[in-house]
């Protein structure tokens, strides 16, 4: 099992956990909007490190962003499997053609 799949499974398992004992449960208990806000903050931090060019810090911020992306998606019942299915659907399609198909 990949680290990303393990993380997604852990997030799913924390959905019903006590918010006082789990950061993930605490985020989820605040609702999808707060989860989205936190993902946005982490994405901005990753962007800042990408611009600065600090590989180590970018790696850490990218990991944070991936975690918060999965939490945000879980808050709306979108699983890693759903995301992977969409990526598989797009596989072999030009990014330019795929974007054009969305209008």
Concise structural overview:
It contains six helices and no strands. The chain is mostly helical and about 100 residues long.
Structure description:
With 103 residues, the protein is an all-alpha fold. It has six helices and no strands. α1 packs across α4 (55-75) and α3 runs antiparallel to α4 (55-75). 18% of the residues are buried.
Please tally the β strands and state the result. Answer: 0
Helical amount among residues, as a percent range? over 70%
Low-confidence stretches: none
Number of helices: 6
Element-level helix/strand string: HHHHHH
Shape: globular
C-alpha-based Rg, rounded: 15 Å
End-to-end CA span: 36 Å
Major β-sheet annotation: none
* Proportion of residues in β-strands: under 5%
Mean pLDDT, nearest integer? Answer: 93
Q: Helix/strand-derived class?
A: mainly alpha
Architecture blueprint of SSEs:
Blueprint: H1 3-13, H2 23-29, H3 32-52, H4 55-75, H5 80-90, H6 95-101
Helix pairs in contact: 1-4, 3-4
């Amino acid at each position: 099992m990949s680290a990303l799949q393990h993380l997604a499974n852990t997030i799913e398992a924390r959905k019903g956990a006590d918010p006082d004992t789990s950061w993930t449960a605490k985020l989820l208990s605040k609702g999808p909007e707060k989860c989205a806000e936190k993902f946005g903050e982490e994405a901005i931090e990753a962007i800042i490190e990408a611009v600065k060019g600090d590989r180590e810090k970018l790696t850490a911020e990218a990991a944070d962003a991936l975690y918060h992306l999965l939490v945000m998606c879980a808050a709306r019942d979108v699983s890693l499997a759903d995301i992977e299915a969409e990526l598989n659907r797009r596989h072999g399609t030009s990014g330019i053609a795929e974007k054009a198909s969305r209008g």
